[in-house]
Write a structure and sequence with these properties.
six-stranded antiparallel β-sheet, about 35% helix, about 160 residues
Length: about 160
């Protein structure tokens, strides 16, 4: 029993970087990976915030699904492990955030080194909400940060 407890403590310490992670940070449109939420505060306020990072589990899910055709199983040259290692090395330092003012419907977001962008909810009824537009994860971010306003404005 004592060895089991020591093993549990050791395993917890080994994977402690993900211990504070809780849930998907929506990034994936049609062909990309999600991140993992590391901080969430101010839900339903004028300063709602989520911050995130890319974890190996995020990359593993992407490489298993392989929408880019990189792995051998989908016509590429990489094993799933090579895909994970390559992408993780490239994306591991990427951080992301989304900040919303739930009263006004403004959402600002940034991923990695991309410039900050913003959108205003509710979207106009003719807005492109397709995967190609990149809008589905932005809508999910607003729903995470401002669930009351998202329900009121029927943000889907």
């Amino acid at each position: 029993m004592r060895h089991f407890m020591l093993l549990t403590v050791f395993a917890s310490a080994m994977f402690s970087h993900s211990a504070y992670a809780f849930g998907d940070f929506p990034l994936a449109s049609c062909k990309s990976n999600n991140g993992t939420v590391t901080e969430k505060s101010g839900v339903n306020t004028e300063h709602a915030l989520i911050k995130g990072m890319i974890t190996k589990a995020d990359i593993q899910e992407y490489c298993d699904r392989d929408p880019g055709g990189s792995t051998v199983a989908y016509g590429g040259k990489l094993t799933v492990t090579q895909c994970v290692n390559s992408m993780y090395q490239r994306l591991a330092k990427d951080e992301m955030y989304a900040v919303a003012n739930c009263k006004t419907g403004h959402l600002k977001f940034r991923y990695g080194t991309s410039p900050e962008k913003s959108v205003k909810f509710p979207l106009h009824r003719d807005a492109d909400k397709s995967c190609a537009s990149g809008m589905p994860p932005i809508i999910q971010q607003f729903q995470l940060l401002c669930p009351t306003a998202a329900a009121k404005w029927k943000v889907q």
